[in-house]
Write a structure and sequence with these properties.
Blueprint: H1 2-29, H2 33-43, H3 47-156, E1 160-165, E2 170-173, H4 175-181, H5 193-196, H6 204-219, E3 223-230, E4 234-244, E5 250-259, H7 261-296, H8 303-335, E6 342-346, H9 347-364, E7 368-371, E8 379-383, H10 384-400, E9 407-415, E10 420-427, H11 460-471, E11 475-481, E12 485-493, H12 497-503
Parallel strand pairs: 7-9
Antiparallel strand pairs: 1-2, 1-5, 3-4, 4-5, 6-8, 9-10, 10-12, 11-12
Length: 504
Amino acid sequence: MKFRRDLYVIVTGIVAVSLFIGALAGWLDAGTEEGWRFAGYVQRAPLVLVCYVVGAVGVIWLGWYWLKLAGGTTSIARRLKKETADCRLSIADCKSKIGNRKSKISKVDKLSEAIAERIDSYSSVIGELEKQIEDLQIQIQLTQRQKRNIEAIIYSIRDAVIVIDEFDRLLMANEAAGRLFNFDFRSSQRKPIDELVFSEEGDAGKNEFVDFLRQSRQSKVRATRREIEFSGARTFDCIVSCVYDERGQICGVVAVLHDITREKEISQMKNDFVSQVSHELKTPLASISAYSEMLLDGEAKDGRMRKEFYSVIQSQAQRLNRLIEDILNTSRIESGLIKVERAPLSLTILIEEQLQMIKSYAEEKNIEIIAQKPIVFNQVYADKDMISQVIVNLLSNAVKYTPGGGSIKIETEVDETADIARVSITDTGVGIPEDEIEHVFDKFYRVGANESCAKGTGLGLNLVKQIIEKVHDGRVFVASEPGVGSTFGFELPLATRGAVEAVV
């Protein structure tokens, strides 16, 4: 477009110049002086002809240009008219289409409303389902947590716990059950119980336990118990309970095995204690009763016989009193009710005091007592009366079980490294068999081979052990060889010099 405008300006200029030159040619024909002067220039070249030709061409081109411009304008007008008509038709079509679309849109709107209503109804259902899913997830989490808590409780129970299903397969067991029956309780689930609990050494207790589980499941008894003894002299109180589902059908069995070995031993010890006490009380009471009846019947004819009867009654009464005192002291120590009065004591001085009471008894049997020279510092912080009773019991036992002509050696030593004082009493008596040494400190225990050598209650050495170990945190020890002699002794913590000086 710019090029055409420039071309139009150029052609217009050329036409104007050509017409100007033609005018000058007319002026030459007028005969004036200036016309003749200019005519001279014109005659030198055919300039007028060229000017007219150029002007004619320019006019022709301008006419053609204007015709073309008019044709273009007419074409644009026709096109605009056609497009206007087309637009009118299009508008009419659009209106009809819009009407159709409106009807379709109304249908779509109705469909959308129906879909929206259905979506709303589904949304409420979905919301309820989501809420139910959340509730189920919470219940699952709670169930899993409860399961973990139950497993943690079962695993932490010291008693053996075994849970089996209705097909006698292991569902759960704790570590105590695994140790008892020798299986890995974490990797043995769903295995038959008779494959896990079996005895290769003929342990009848394990077989009895498996049979007990099956019988309890088959009998459908809610709970039953039985004492079962396994190898190694271990006794368990086995409680078996059936587990029922919501239909009332048995879905498993739970067994709890409580080790009552120690309880049975204690019960046996109590029975033995009552039996021994009854026996020990019966003997002196029988003697006292018999001699009293003889005195009442007048069988003692003179004073010497009456004095002998009185002496027997007195000795049996003293024996009865010692037995009761030993029983009471042992009971007070075990229950922690005995009163303890601690003070710094010199073991050497305390032994010398107790020797004065035993020497006459030893001299009657011609037994030599060898005492050690005093140690510079062998003080302990202890109850004087209790330690005196310990020394008397050990010395009297040494004299009782040492034949005439024997000897008793008393040694006291201090271990400053361990801060303990050690007292040992060695005799040349009958000795104790090796298999009975570990029982000599038990209540009412008396060495069977030595019962004929001396009488006693069997509580003296037990009382020694209670006083030294339970009251004073010490230790008792014994070494013996039959026919050679025995060594009994004890160790006590040394009293610190600062504590002794503070008391003094």
